[in-house]
Amino acid sequence: MTFKPKQHHKFMHYHFSFSNPNSHFIEISLSFEAKEAFTRVRLPSWRPGRYQIQNFAKNIKNVQASDENGKAIGIKKTSKDTWLLENEKGMVTISYSYYAFVMDAGNSWLDDEQLYINFINCAMYPEGQLNEACQVSLTVPQNYQVATGLKAEEVTDYSAPNYYQLVDSPLIASATLRKVSYTVEGHVFNVWIQGDLPKSDEEVINDFMPFTQIQMEVMEGFPCEVYHFLCQCLPYKHYHGVEHWNSTVITLGPSQDLSERALYKEFLGVSSHELFHTWNVIRLRPEEMTPYDFQSENYHKTGFVTEGVTTYYGDLFLSRCGVFDRDEYVAEINKLLKRHYDNEGRKHYSVAASSYDLWLDGYERGIPGRKVSIYNEGALAAMILDLKIRLKYDSAKSLDDVMRLMWQRHGKNLSGYSYQDYQQAAETVYEEDLTDYFTHIISGTKAYESELEQLLTAFGLTFELKASVKTEEAGFGIRLTKHGDRFFIDQIATGSAAEKLLSVKDEILRLNGEDFKGSWPETESVNLEVNRFGRKLTFELNKETQIHFPIYQVAVNQEASEEEKGKLEKWIGV
User: DSSP code of 259?
Assistant: First the structure.
């Protein structure tokens, strides 16, 4: 594709090109009509889908500006991501370079194989013009294909009705893109693959079509005529996905392992998860993000809906449509439970509070025992609500009804919803007060097993507390991590004897007089020599009768009644 002339001034026109792909710099220009003298232009500080300030402006250099006659205009930076143009009214062009060298589902990348753009990273906008139409043109090699949810045009290359949809429509341009397509009820779904996916087109369609169909059945339609899965199959270990208006980007690897069920199952799981986001968060969005404020934090307490409900449904849909078998889905429940019980933060911070603090440290491990994951805890909270409704109505009603009602009330019209709106929708379906659930499970720290034990056993599963198989964890309250050939204390159980003596990041040098190689003996006491930031210290520890780091796990109850087996099938499929 070649550069096209700038179009009528009612558009913001973006042009993307590169001269040396191995430099990883994308050359970008933005032309627009300045409505006032002294125009501010801005670059977003964060991106939807990751509620964390990321400061994309740090990747920009060589910012210049000119008027419609090509005469240079003064431009100065006034904050970390704001520039002030010393312009008159009329057409203005800004040009700059963006360093695109982070490969994940939310960033941008340029090399000798592809141009991959998340416009939210690099597309500046004039203040006050977010609702104006956008045009995009590309200068890329003639043999490149382009995968994007943007609308293809004749006069320019692509367009979006406003800036919000421009930055919600990532793009991959490459000579090696592979396209697999299928249709469900007149809606076209394209699976674009950059890299190597060792599965045939037929295999991909046979797995993607069923979870697409069941999601459309549950939500009674689909809001996009055409939808794009933009898949980066990478040669190294990686896992990430980000949702968009009519597309998703999925980055996963190592690609050669996608021939095996373990990683391919993860690929299907994240694909199902991201597809459900087309409703839940892209359109059915918390009112605090309606519309997005791209320059500052958009605080909200409903991450347990946006990410928790979506995480729960991503794998459940795969089970209900038969792509996952029963044992595979039970294994996914156990992953959620293990993460929950391995995190002491469940005792101190609610999933609603953790949602609000996404902007503080939501994507970091954080200090010991402070917070929980809205993805993991939100998924378990969604399961509890789903099973409560199913148990009351023998699956004639479920969380499906809550999400359909939320869609009808707050999603189709893009109005946004509050915490109270979600509670009201749940209570409408349940036909009973759910204050206890929302007060203690969502906004409190009530132990999840207080609900899960009764619910899961009623649905034909066992629910048992399992001790860690590692002696140092169960008996001594110490969890280790390995770096090279060295072993460090990663966690210490609350209330353990070790908590009073040892510290996180202590390196274990010797155990019972021998160099420590990772093997912990089955003895009643141990002598530890540790390195604590250069100090060598020695401690005696006794094995405790209290079991530390226990986790609840589920299994199919082989002695379940026919009624319980029936409930399980109605919930997760045959």
Answer: G
Tell which residue, 342, 340, 346, has the closest CA to residue 371.
346
Contact 283, 414 (CB under 8 A): yes
Of 415, 417, 382, 412, nearest in space to 400 by CA:
382
Residue 534: predicted pLDDT: 97
Rg (CA), the chain: 26
Closest CA to 370 of 383, 361, 381: 361
CA 184 to CA 192: how far, in whole Å? 17
Contact at 8 Å (CB) between 193 and 231? yes
What is the spatial distance between Cα 55 and Cα 43, in angstroms, rounded to a whole number? 9
CATH H superfamily, domain 471-542: PDZ domain (2.30.42.10)
Amino acid at 249: V
Nearest to 121 by CA among 169, 181, 66: 169
Task: Output the CA torsion sign for 422, 423, 428, 430.
Answer: positive
Token pair for residue 561? 């009644």
Which CATH superfamily includes the segment(s) 279-458? Neutral Protease Domain 2 (1.10.390.10)
**Quick check: 11 and 20 in contact, CB under 8 A?**
no
Domain 12-174 sits in CATH at: 2.60.40.3650
Integer CA distances (angstroms), 543 to 499, 508, 548, in order: 13, 17, 11
561 or 9, greater pLDDT? 561
Whether residue 286 contacts residue 417, with contact meaning beta carbons closer than 8 Å, is answered with yes
DSSP class of 547: P
In the predicted model, is pLDDT for residue 291 greater than 50?
yes
Q: What is the DSSP letter of 400?
A: H
In terms of C-beta density within 10 A (0-12 exposed, 13-18 middle, 19 or more buried), how is residue 250 classed? buried
Beta carbons within 8 Å of 375's beta carbon, 6+ residues apart? 307, 308, 311
- Write down the pLDDT at residue 230: 98
CA torsion, ordered 240, 244, 246, 251, to nearest 10 deg: -20
Please state the separation of Cα 184 from the chain's center in Å: 25
Indicate the DSSP class of residue 369: T
Q: Answer yes or no: are the C-beta atoms of 234 and 210 closer than 8 Å.
A: no
Average pLDDT over residues 192-208: 98
Listed by start position, the domains of the chain span: 12-174, 177-275, 279-458, 471-542
At residue 156 the predicted structure's pLDDT band, cuts being 50, 70 and 90, is: confident
User: Above 90 in pLDDT, residue 233?
Assistant: yes
Write the pLDDT tens digit of every residue in 71-91.
999 999 999 999 999 998 999
The hierarchical CATH code for the domain 177-275 is 1.10.390.10
